[in-house]
Design goal:
single chain, seven-stranded mixed β-sheet, six-stranded mixed β-sheet, mainly beta, 588 residues, 46% strand
Length: 588
């Protein structure tokens, strides 16, 4: 038995910045000699596709780690993540959790003493000791928020560099206490490599309180013995509070996804590691760009021609003309929430026509070498037939309410310092309102808008960051442009775009959980095979997986007055409604 169980959440759905708590349980029939039992929180964006076959086959790969945290739940020491090419100054990002280490507390933390060893990782040979220090946990717990700094030593003598630590006791949802020891930084380190820079990590383990500080700290054993019987180990991870993509199974090419999971293994030297994995749905906390909470309108224009055949830029078989005006209450939606559409469409032809509301999701796969593969998939949200010479009207005061399916929250990448093309998988959505013929090759009049799909419903966004809603504005998406998360979509006064900084929420208020207790399955992926190469000695069944996106318990309310479309102005409707009771009274 080797299993991961969550203790602070029924569904494995978490927001960026939240803490994952659970227990790792395993059963050993006999004692097992191993290096350690480790548990990792992993977040990976990966793509792979190929062209041709046989000798003419070409493969394209791309990968990026968004989360990589690993803790030792059983072993002789804990270690931080390796900071590649950190050089003389290794600074750990508190939001990413790279420097966090958790220790199980069975008594008072004040009595604990730890050895802290700053190391330089060398592949294929013994790692270099950059410096070490003896730490009394009581002193670190009483230190200010920025931590406490220790001078490094080597062989009992002062060495170049310092290490700064932060600590606090954590209450696990399972009832146990854990000690969080966080490495803030290791600065001024000596250079250990002739070529290249130091690849820094920090090692920590318990030592006797009377250890002589003027001598080299005794090293801990590399191997340990896992006892026989049923064992349970509590764990905690903090999902990084930063801009990163939500879980997404794109299904394009051979493989394309952003996937988060908890992966545990028993590290046995020269043997396949017993392992288990639990997949999570992680949601981005990025807020919509400015303007996405505002209504958008398409004014009524001159009737446009409709053709029975429109293909490859050629139009023939004219059927007549048609026209429509429309408005949407906002261009920011979330899975399971609603979008309100007002419409006045006129079919001036002698043939029936259809009006469609659909979302086109465009995914871009980028390989290491910069090769780009673009794939699109559309989902029809609503279809209505308009009879010859007929109308379809959805008045502004009673707009059509359309439920949004499990679309993946938008991730366009290339923001917050990322270089173009660094993210292997990005995607964006376009809302398309279309009035056209019934046949596949018929032409259509289309209104395309950039659609920001966020993880939070509009009502939640208003709680987190209240926005003043103004009157609707004309908005159009230009073919070939990729809407950016941190860019106001086309529609600036000068016709260009307005670049703004991406806004990421680093704290999830309780209202978010209260309003999003439902979940909807990811629309585009379905359940997929999740077997990875690390899972070749997996314990238990590898179940099919699909992300489950949080959905609101109730639709977000109308946050603004819809622009007048598809009927008399709202003021006239209100006058008629107010006058009706008076006329009834006069009649009586």
């Amino acid at each position: 038995n080797f299993q991961i169980k969550l203790t602070n959440r029924e569904n494995p759905v978490f927001w960026a910045g939240e803490t994952i708590e659970g227990v790792l349980t395993l059963s050993a029939r006999e004692p097992v000699t191993c290096r350690a039992v480790r548990l990792a929180l992993q977040g990976i964006g990966l793509i792979h596709w190929h062209t041709g076959s046989g000798d003419n086959r070409t493969d394209y790969h791309g990968k990026r780690e968004y989360v990589s945290q690993c803790i030792t739940v059983f072993g002789n020491f804990q270690a931080t993540q390796i900071l590649d090419s950190a050089g003389e100054n290794a600074i750990y990002d508190a939001d990413s959790g790279d420097g966090d280490m958790y220790f199980r507390l069975e008594g008072s933390a004040d009595q604990l003493t730890y050895a802290v060893r700053v190391m330089d990782y060398d592949w294929g040979k013994k790692d270099d000791l950059l410096g070490e220090a003896i730490v009394n946990v009581k002193d670190v717990l009483n230190a200010p928020a920025e931590g406490i700094t220790y001078q490094l030593k080597r062989n009992g003598k002062e060495e170049k560099g310092t290490v700064s630590l932060y600590a606090r006791e954590m209450q696990h949802s399972g009832g146990e206490k854990l000690l969080l020891l966080r490495v803030v930084s290791a600065l001024g380190l000596r250079k250990a490599d002739w070529f290249g820079k130091n690849d820094v990590y920090v090692q920590m383990y318990a030592i006797p309180s009377d250890t002589n500080p003027d001598q080299a700290i005794p090293e801990t054993a590399k191997q340990c013995t896992l006892p026989a019987g049923d064992l349970t180990y509590p764990f905690m991870f903090r999902v990084p509070s930063k801009q990163m993509p939500s879980s997404y199974e794109a299904g394009h090419g051979d493989r394309s996804y952003v996937r988060y999971s908890l992966y545990a293994n028993v590290d046995i030297a020269w043997w396949r590691d017993p392992s288990t994995r639990m997949f999570l749905t992680v949601m981005s906390t990025e807020l919509p760009p400015p303007g996405a909470m505002q209504p958008a309108t398409r004014p009524l224009q001159e009737p446009e021609p409709i053709y029975g055949c429109s293909c490859c830029g050629c139009n023939c078989c004219a059927k007549g003309t048609a026209q429509f005006e429309a408005a949407v209450d906002r261009t920011c939606v979330s899975p399971g929430d609603v979008l309100r559409v007002a419409l006045n469409a006129q079919n001036l032809t002698e043939n029936p026509m259809k009006f469609e509301v659909k979302v086109v999701t465009t995914s871009r796969l980028r390989s290491y070498l910069g090769k780009v593969k673009t794939e699109s998939r559309e989902e029809i949200l609503s279809t209505q037939t308009i009879e010859p010479k007929g109308k379809l009207v959805w008045p502004s005061y009673t707009p059509q309410v359309i439920t949004i399916p499990g679309l993946p929250p938008t991730f366009s990448g290339n923001v917050l310092g990322r270089r173009a093309g660094q993210d292997p998988l990005t995607w964006f959505h376009v809302l398309v309102l279309s009035l056209g013929g019934m046949d596949y090759f018929s032409s259509a009049i289309e209104w395309k808008l950039p659609l920001f799909v966020g993880a939070m419903p509009a009502a939640v966004v208003q709680i987190v960051q209240p926005t003043t809603i103004s009157a609707g504005k004309e908005l159009e998406w230009k073919e070939g442009e990729e809407p950016q998360q941190a860019v106001e979509f086309p529609g600036a006064p000068d016709g260009g775009t307005i670049v703004v900084e991406a806004i990421v929420v680093d704290y999830i208020p309780q209202q978010v959980h209260d309003l999003t207790k439902n979940t909807v399955p990811a629309l585009q992926s379905g359940e997929v095979d999740t077997m990875e190469h690390e899972d070749d000695n997996h314990f238990g069944d590898v179940v099919a997986y699909a992300p489950q996106y949080p959905a609101p318990l109730e639709p977000s309310p109308l946050l603004c007055v819809m622009p007048d479309v598809g009927g008399p102005p709202r003021e006239q409707v209100m006058e008629v409604e107010q006058a009706a009771p008076a006329q009834q009274n006069m009649g009586t």
